[in-house]
C-alpha cells in the first residue's frame, strides 16, 4: 500500500488536482487584492491580470543559490574566488538572468515586503551577509560554474571599487514604515542588520565620493574605449544614461547624490529607533536634502538660460 508523500501526490490528480489548483488560484487572487487593492484603486480586470502575472513571476523567481563569485581589486593581478556563500534572492529573469542583481533586488522587495515581510527580511539578511570587511557587496551574484555558464566572460569578474544603487535602503524604508504602521517594530532584526548597513553606507561615502564636498561619482566607466560615444555607466543601473562623454575623476553624478540622500535619512531613522547616535546621519541628510546645495552642484543656470535642450 502506498504511504507518505508519494501516495499523497499521486492521489491529487484529475478533477481533484484541478479543484485544488482552482482553490489556490482563488485564494491568491483574494490575497492579491487584499494586499495591493488594485480593484479599489480603479484598475480594470485586464490590468489586474497583468499585475497578478507579473507579481507571480516575481515571487516565483525567488531562489536559493550557493557558490563563489569571481572578484578582483587594484591590489590583485588576477581574479580570485570570493568566499563560498549562499544567497536567497529574487532574479530579474529566470530564463535570461537567473542570478541575483543587487539593485534589482531592492526594487523587487518593495513589492514582496507588502506580501510577506518575513521573506523580505530573509532576502535582505542574505545579501548583507555578502558584505566584506571593507563594506563592499558584489553587485552581480554569479555563484558557481552553472551560473557562470549563462554570463559573457567580460561580465563575470566583479571589481571591488564598483558599486550599484543602494536600493536596499528603499527596502529598509518600506520595512520601517510597515513595522511602525503595524505597531510591531522588530528591534532584534534592526539591531542585527544595522552594523552591516553602517559599513555599507561608509563604503559608499569613502569609495564613491567626488572631488568636491557633497558630490558623488560612480566608478567603473571606461575612459579609454573607442566603441562608444558616451561610455556606459553599468554600475549606476542606468547603463546608457547620458553623462560626460569623456569619463574623468572630476565628474559627479546627481543620481548617486540622490541615493545617498535617501541612505542618510534611513540610517538616521534606524539609529534613532535603536537609541544610537544619529547626529552624523541627520547632518548629512539635511545637507544633501537642501535644494540650495543640490542646485549649486548640479544646476547649470547658464546652459539652461540659453534654451539648450538637455537630455536628463
TrEMBL record:
Its EC number is 3.2.1.106. GO terms for biological process: oligosaccharide metabolic process; protein N-linked glycosylation. Residues 13-303 form the Glycosyl hydrolase family 63 C-terminal domain. It is an enzyme of class 3 (hydrolase). InterPro entries: 6-hairpin_glycosidase_sf, 6hp_glycosidase-like_sf, Glyco_hydro_63_C, Glycoside_hydrolase_63. It is found in: Endoplasmic reticulum membrane. One of its GO terms (molecular function) is Glc3Man9GlcNAc2 oligosaccharide glucosidase activity. It holds the Pfam family Glyco_hydro_63. It is a single-pass type II membrane protein. Keywords: Endoplasmic reticulum, Glycoprotein, Glycosidase, Hydrolase, Membrane, Signal-anchor, Transmembrane, Transmembrane helix. This is mannosyl-oligosaccharide glucosidase. It comes from Geodia barretti.
Amino acid at each position: 500500500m502506498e504511504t507518505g508523500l508519494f501516495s499523497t501526490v499521486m492521489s491529487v490528480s484529475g478533477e481533484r488536482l484541478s479543484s485544488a489548483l482552482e482553490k489556490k488560484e482563488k485564494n491568491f487572487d483574494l490575497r492579491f487584492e487584499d494586499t495591493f487593492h488594485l480593484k479599489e484603486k480603479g484598475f480594470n480586470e485586464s490590468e489586474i491580470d497583468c499585475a497578478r502575472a507579473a507579481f507571480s513571476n516575481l515571487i516565483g523567481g525567488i531562489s536559493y543559490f550557493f557558490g563563489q563569485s569571481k572578484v578582483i581589486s587594484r591590489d590583485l593581478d588576477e581574479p580570485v574566488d570570493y568566499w563560498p556563500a549562499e544567497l536567497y534572492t529574487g532574479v530579474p529573469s529566470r530564463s535570461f538572468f537567473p542570478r541575483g542583481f543587487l539593485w534589482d533586488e531592492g526594487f523587487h522587495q518593495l513589492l514582496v515586503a507588502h506580501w510577506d515581510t518575513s521573506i523580505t527580511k530573509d532576502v535582505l539578511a542574505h545579501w548583507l551577509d555578502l558584505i566584506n570587511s571593507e563594506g563592499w557587496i558584489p553587485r552581480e551574484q554569479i555563484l558557481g560554474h552553472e551560473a557562470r555558464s549563462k554570463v559573457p566572460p567580460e561580465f563575470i569578474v566583479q571589481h571591488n571599487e564598483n558599486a550599484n544603487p543602494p536600493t536596499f535602503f528603499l527596502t529598509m524604508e518600506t520595512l520601517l514604515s510597515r513595522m511602525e504602521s503595524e505597531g510591531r517594530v522588530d528591534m532584534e532584526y534592526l539591531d542585527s542588520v544595522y552594523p552591516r548597513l553602517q559599513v555599507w553606507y561608509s563604503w559608499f561615502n569613502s569609495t564613491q565620493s567626488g572631488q568636491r564636498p557633497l558630490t558623488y561619482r560612480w566608478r567603473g566607466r571606461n575612459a579609454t574605449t573607442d566603441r562608444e560615444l558616451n561610455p556606459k555607466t553599468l554600475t549606476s543601473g542606468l547603463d546608457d544614461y547620458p553623462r560626460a562623454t569623456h569619463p574623468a575623476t572630476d565628474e559627479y553624478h546627481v543620481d548617486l547624490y540622490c541615493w545617498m540622500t535617501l541612505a542618510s535619512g534611513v540610517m538616521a531613522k534606524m539609529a534613532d529607533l535603536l537609541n544610537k547616535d544619529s547626529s552624523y546621519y541627520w547632518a548629512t541628510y539635511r545637507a544633501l536634502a537642501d535644494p540650495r546645495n543640490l542646485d549649486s552642484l548640479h544646476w547649470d543656470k547658464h546652459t539652461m538660460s540659453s534654451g539648450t535642450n538637455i537630455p536628463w
